[in-house]
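Late entry, written up from scratch paper. The run itself happened at the end of the previous shift, but nothing got recorded in the book at the time, so transcribing now.
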Amino acid sequence: MANMNDPDFNTNILICDDNDAIHKDFLKVLNALPDKKLDIDYLEEKLFEDDPDDDVPNFHDPFDDIQFHIDSAYQGKDALHMAEKAAEDGKPYSVIFMDVRMPPGWDGILTAEKIWQKLPYTEIVIVTAYSDYTWEEMIDKLGFNSRLLFIKKPFDTLTVKQLALNLTNKWNARDRSRRELDLLNQELLRSGTATTPSLDRRLQELKETLEKI
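Output as recorded:
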């Protein structure tokens, strides 16, 4: 489990959708707006269902303590460019929420495929209100991938919060294990010495962890 109190914990998220109202909805749900009391007309569209926590007096939402960093892309090619640039700058996106229909450019499935070719560890959530692709068609195009989730609109705020939290935590846990594994392998190469039983066990543990996450 990654440490969410670690200052290096990655909460960078990209929203890719051609509808500006969707971006605003995600910003509100993930507590990324500087003023949560802003007059937001688009909420009348009711993309997200009412949050049952609104009726609980003095309720403290634990997600309020998490600062997500949200960027927006409106076309698939833009999402790929932004994901590559973020990774180059050392600030990769841990999670991308991806719409399916984004005319006139790439759809979300093609965009996910392009992103994984360059950044295979990115967690991607395909979001759509339509049955654009069946599960079988997505598997055929993308292959079975534990970093792919599929949700349909409308969905409630808790679903989005849980996905954001769980997937960022998953990304960070994998990244931590991957970094440690790379560091140990580099040290072995530099030293030119043989591994020890304890080091062999640790290397195997890290490899198994990466396979499971």
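Confidence is low (pLDDT under 50) at residues 34-46.
(Scratch paper discarded after transcription.)
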